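As described in the Methods, two query proteins were run sequentially through the folding procedure within a single session, without resetting any intermediate state between them. The first query and its resulting structure tokens are shown here.
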Amino acid sequence: MPDETLAQTSAPGKLVLSGEYAVLAGAPAVVAAIDRRVACRIDAREAGGWAFRSRGFDAASRHRRDALPDVPGDPGALAGYAIRRLDIQAATLPEHLGIETDSRPCYHDGAKLGLGSSAAAVVAIAGAMARIAGTVCTLPQSLAIHRDLQGGSGSGLDVAAAFRGGVIRYQAGEARSMPWSSSIRSVFVYVGWSTETRDFVQRFNDWRRDGEPSALRRLVECAKTVAEGGGSFLDALAEYADALDALDRAAGIGIFSEAHRAAMKLGRRHHVLYKPCGAGGGDMGVALSEDVDALGAFRTAVTQAGLHVVSAAIDPDGLSVS
């Protein structure tokens, strides 16, 4: 007898357009969902307990439904967090399941691109577990599951983007959609290596301690201006990028690595705005402009410089459940 598919879900990755680091000081962030989606499928099986398989982040395990692990890196742990936060009784679920997640679109040559694949996996798995239990998963529940996974750390902006889709304004657990001008075009750049976000955040926290240095105050104000809208988004974002650079120089975090600075220099040469996204250092950056030809010239230049242009677009859709 073939397996019966009980749930199929997917959730998009994300890129932070503005608000990285400032969001840790209470400022709003502007985050875009990206159409590199993490998928989850749950199949009913006749035997074998709950068999987990994760692609992209390659892992596999098998557990009883009433003995799911709480071990980082075990794909069964996330299902357990979801069941608890969704207030589902494990005994009411099928005894034998195949649970597979696929985050390969968020990887390049085996390395994470920095698109928030873990957060997208949280949203996809939570949506799938809710589906087979006959309930729905909310954004606050998804945020709580992700906090469990991260040991209480993280702002949650990547979870909100995966859940909502489109471009959002995120602050203190609250997300709302932001209008996005179709005249603004983008090129997404991967600099060639992954960043461990926790290390960069720790450097930021060590620098900041319990105060708010002037460079951070400026960054917070610029983040507010971008998120409030009302003027030129690109002008406001350029001012924010300058403030982020100033904070990096003051704190010595390494947000603007040599590769990001090379891309930023090419952006200036071709009259487009370039900035790293998220923690910085490695991972992704974005170039934005209303000039299609300028972006095309930038795309060619960064490729010739040995950086990788990632084929992607802003995804208007968040969590999909079927």
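Immediately afterward, the second query was submitted; its sequence and tokens are:
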Amino acid sequence: MKILIAGFEGNDNKWNDNLTEIERENLFSQIKLCDGVILQGGIEMDNYEFIIAKYCYENNIPILGICAGQNAIAKALGGSTYKIPNPEEHNISRDYVHSIKIQEDSKFYSIIGSKEIMVNSLHTNTIDKCPHLDKVGFCKDGYADVIESKDKEFYIGVRFHPEDLYKKDNKINNIFKYFIETCKRLKVED
């Protein structure tokens, strides 16, 4: 199985598909080699991530956006982010920091099997608008910790860092298991 992990720099709510036709075709040919995409966490993003996220949405390719990757999948579809007013409460640790409540009618709930989970927090931004996506997991401050598309097989963004918690938390590990299972299933269906 092949999974693309992308991460670049640049941080703005506006982005442009400024690739030449050759660059775009090269990028899409690389994505087509993969069974799924993970947009990793980080401080900043680049147009490549938005282009990848939009392409995945349009072609039902499984994608998991982590931290800044969550921001990228929202922005790719016309969404926006903003700086939170209380970063001192959310830019704390790679270990458990606070709980989030999950909507029971969400795909994410069916993946983790719980209405509430503990997550880590290293964030200064959150999702404002996310057209085509639903906000389905929230911390006590009301920030969207999970967004998803109900129309896609796996188009999910999380504000926290599941890669730091999966070894000790089966609910968190289920995110990666379900992502991989979806990638395998869609590959077989092709």
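The first helix runs from residue 21 to 32. We note this only descriptively and draw no conclusion about the first query from it.
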